[in-house]
Amino acid sequence: MRIIINGDDFGFSEGQNLGIIKAHKEGILTSTTAMAGGPALSHGMALAKECPNLSIGVHLTLDALCPLSPVERIPSLVDEHGRFIRFPMDRPLPVKPEEVYLEWTAQIEKIRSYGIEPTHLDGHHHMHLHPDVLKVTTVLAKEYTLPIRLVPSYVSGEDLNFIRKERIQTFYGLTDFYKETVSEDYFRRFREDHEGLESEILEIMCHPAYLDDVILENSSYQIHRVKELSILVNPEVRKAVEAQHLTLGSVKDFFSVTP
């Protein structure tokens, strides 16, 4: 089994950045995705320069923080305060695809402005897979030659066929290391619990962090971030991964990423 362990929300806060970097340097985390509009993005990018083996992708954002584009150019995406509207994932999006394309291109280019070529794409709250913007995601994936996180439960059969038809590289995003399932046993039972997915490149989504004011004031997912960090740096967890003959790697290890 080929496994990517990806830390979401890089750039969201300094505590989030420090947790992801520690989980990479001292633990089993192999990749991360950065929020281009995150208030601690510059802090995170400075830390990332110490980690040449860390794959850094873009955590495409449409429903949190503030956009990078001038608000007058993306009116369907923002509220009266110029912040992203929090759209429910299970409802149609009242957005214009061309505005989403403009904003997400700006987010990708923001990461590139730090001298980092992104290695993959995913989305905050998996918004990149919403059927109303999925075509934008695939266009960007093709333009930048980047693989995307595919969470099958968020994608219809019709949309899955569309992704395959467009020949977009994908990896299988797992969302089951979260809240109550955050434990060492998750990794001890990994092969058994994910039987049948041996042929896939699997990605474990996680959010290891130190709690800080930004997280406490802006996220309901709090103490579990700290617990995730302690698990990912636990030497016994690494031993459990090795004992199951799981091949840990980054996106760069498993995909040919062309800048």
Automatic annotation (TrEMBL):
<keyword id="KW-0479">Metal-binding</keyword>
<dbReference type="InterPro" id="IPR011330">
    <property type="entry name" value="Glyco_hydro/deAcase_b/a-brl"/>
</dbReference>
<keyword id="KW-0378">Hydrolase</keyword>
<keyword id="KW-0460">Magnesium</keyword>
<dbReference type="GO" id="GO:0016811">
    <property type="term" value="F:hydrolase activity, acting on carbon-nitrogen (but not peptide) bonds, in linear amides"/>
</dbReference>
<dbReference type="InterPro" id="IPR006879">
    <property type="entry name" value="YdjC-like"/>
</dbReference>
<dbReference type="GO" id="GO:0019213">
    <property type="term" value="F:deacetylase activity"/>
</dbReference>
<keyword id="KW-0119">Carbohydrate metabolism</keyword>
<protein>
    <recommendedName>
        <fullName>Carbohydrate deacetylase</fullName>
    </recommendedName>
</protein>
<dbReference type="GO" id="GO:0000272">
    <property type="term" value="P:polysaccharide catabolic process"/>
</dbReference>
<dbReference type="InterPro" id="IPR022948">
    <property type="entry name" value="COD_ChbG_bac"/>
</dbReference>
<dbReference type="GO" id="GO:0046872">
    <property type="term" value="F:metal ion binding"/>
</dbReference>
<dbReference type="Pfam" id="PF04794">
    <property type="entry name" value="YdjC"/>
</dbReference>
